[in-house]
Design goal:
Chain lengths: ~190, ~190
């Protein structure tokens, strides 16, 4: 295969993954068929299935790759203060990627073919988010209790994202972020 | 209508609401048709529709009434210590009622007829949960920052519930609850 064809394949995959996440976020699992994604990406159904043989492959790959790209962007905040880091983590859970992931998680509870894939994916994304938060917060997990502070913060971010699903309230979110940044900073500083 | 018929009507409604929540939690929104709920409750479809004319009526009423019953049970903890209260709040978000509510919330993002009903319901349940948490924690919301501590705690509970959806991990949950009960207790005591 020539370099040109390889590059074209990568560009097609990226278009498909972006389209799959956008469809999931907007239309939910039942509305996000393979045909809808192919059409939105401007790719034939056959070409889609060449890259992603099953619907499960397509959507789990899409959420994984787009979430990775997002968390790579947050990593660039290294050195920022706690409030900045907490805000960036909360933002990860309020956009279309979280919405897409939520549709996938919920669908997996009742779709036996999807479930094992999503359980693995959730574990990978969760570990990655935890590692990123520890790094950015400069948290020392060898100190007892520090691990749970970081986990609780990530749970709070996830819960804020869920609350924003139907009724986004940026003002409330910002006040909670500000207060909890202070609490997390104190808990890490006090323990560290 | 005689007292006997009234009582029978209330018992039928309760059976329907319990069946609706159980179906949503197990089968999700698309699997939870009116017929499935009627069958599970042992009630005719006509009788169901007499009490709840539309599918939206049935499921929003079900989540509302069962959530109310649950939070009334938690209120009985008045006077318990912070760790107990935090654990009980987190438990509200990890059972089948939360799972049912989650299916309803997610379905509402793509179902225009469901959305306005669920937005109202979410606001009522959210206010109720907040009021309950404030009471049980003895939090004084006139002190700046206290309101956001309680809100963040409820967001954390919601996020822990979401994380438990596919991979329940009671050990992790308990460690986060214990650590954060200490932090929340400190933040409320320190501010109050």
């Amino acid at each position: 295969m020539t370099d040109h064809r390889l590059a074209r394949g990568a560009a097609t995959r990226r278009r498909l993954l972006d389209a799959a996440v956008a469809c999931l976020a907007e239309l939910g699992w039942s509305g996000s068929t393979v045909s809808v994604v192919a059409e939105r990406a401007g790719v034939s159904r056959g070409a889609l299935q060449h890259h992603y043989p099953t619907r499960e492959d397509l959507f789990t790959s899409a959420v994984e790759h787009v979430a990775e790209r997002q968390s790579a962007a947050v990593r660039s905040l290294a050195g920022a203060d706690v409030a900045c880091v907490v805000r960036a983590i909360v933002d990860l859970y309020t956009g279309p990627v979280f919405r897409a992931a939520l549709h996938l998680w919920v669908a997996a509870t009742t779709e036996p073919r999807l479930r094992p894939r999503v359980v693995q994916l959730e574990a990978r994304i969760g570990r990655e988010a935890h590692r990123m938060a520890v790094e950015l917060l400069g948290a020392d997990e060898s100190v007892p209790g520090v691990r749970e502070v970081v986990q609780g913060l990530l749970d709070m971010a996830r819960g804020l994202g869920l609350a924003s699903l139907l009724t986004p309230d940026a003002g409330r979110r910002e006040r909670v972020v500000e207060r909890w940044a202070g609490i997390v900073g104190g808990a890490l500083g006090g323990a560290g």
